[in-house]
Design a protein that fits this description.
The complex is a heterodimer.
Chain A lengths: L3 E4 L2 E4 L5 E7 L6 E7 L5 E8 L5 E2 L8 E7 L2 E6 L8 E8 L12 E2 L3 E5 L1
Parallel strand pairs in A: 2-11
Antiparallel strand pairs in A: 1-3, 3-8, 4-5, 4-9, 5-6, 7-8, 9-10, 9-11
Chain B lengths: L1 E5 L3 E5 L4 E3 L1 E5 L3 E8 L5 E7 L5 E3 L5 E5 L4 E6 L8 E9 L8 E2 L3 E6 L1
The chains are: A mainly beta, B mainly beta.
């Protein structure tokens, strides 16, 4: 089946550090990728939609200068948490939607394993 | 607009007994409906999906769900729970007319399985 690889799985760093999270679709092309944030014992909250070759679309209340998204290729999107602070600590999950014409076209989003970010 | 309500935040069953996780949805268009499972510190795995074909959908690991339009429900069931089924389950809706294929998540149901 379609595989989405998210890296790193765990990050612990000091306040003020910028952290980059990568999301790769390994066996399909994804014109659209999504970034979610999940607080403990809560559901997933969509942060932004990332489209290859264009600017990301951010959900209301999400600071685009804080959470930089780059979708430079059909298989890679990155989320950079800039100058991270303890309140940014969370579980971040990406997903990728297969493009049309491929073996997984018309399938729903496929999720990475998530990144646990802890800011000290 | 679309929304999903998972009626129970926690469900506890004994191993070998049936599982029922309830989900109600609202959608302006013909919906696609999904159930995902999340194990601790992991991403989401698709259990099953409904996209307008048969209303009774069979998924992986013995799970199935029935789409009932009249009740706007898509409850998840399994005849016999296994210890490995303990996890968080999310009911998800997507409007099929939405070209962006945006997903709306329910609040999640934590399934606990007692030995």
């Amino acid at each position: 089946g379609a595989v989405v690889s998210q890296h790193p799985s765990r990050v612990i760093c000091k306040s003020g550090t910028s952290v980059k999270i990568e999301c790769r679709s390994l066996d399909f092309q994804a014109t659209t990728m999504f970034w979610y944030r999940q607080f403990p014992k809560q559901s997933l909250m969509l942060m932004a939609t990332s489209n290859e070759g264009s600017k990301a679309t951010y959900e209301q209340g999400v600071e685009k200068d804080k959470f930089l998204i780059n979708h430079a290729s059909l298989t890679l999107s990155t989320l950079t948490v800039t100058s991270a602070h303890p309140e940014d600590s969370s579980f971040y999950i990406c997903s990728a939607r297969p493009g049309t014409g491929g073996p997984y076209s018309n399938q729903p989003q496929h999720f990475g394993d998530g990144t646990r970010l802890s800011i000290l | 607009a679309q929304s999903v309500t998972q009626l129970d935040s926690h469900v506890s069953v004994s191993e070998g007994t049936p599982v029922l996780l309830r989900c109600n949805y609202s959608s302006s268009y013909s919906p696609s409906l999904f159930w995902y499972v999340q194990h601790p510190n992991k991403g989401l795995q698709l259990l099953l999906k409904y996209t307008s074909a048969a209303t009774l959908v069979k998924g992986i690991n013995g799970f199935e769900a029935e789409f009932k339009k009249s009740e706007t429900s898509f409850h998840l069931t399994k005849p016999s729970a296994h210890m490995s089924d303990a996890a968080e389950y999310f009911c998800v809706v997507s409007d099929r007319n939405n070209a962006g294929n945006m997903l709306t998540f329910g609040g999640g149901t934590r399934l606990m399985v007692k030995p």
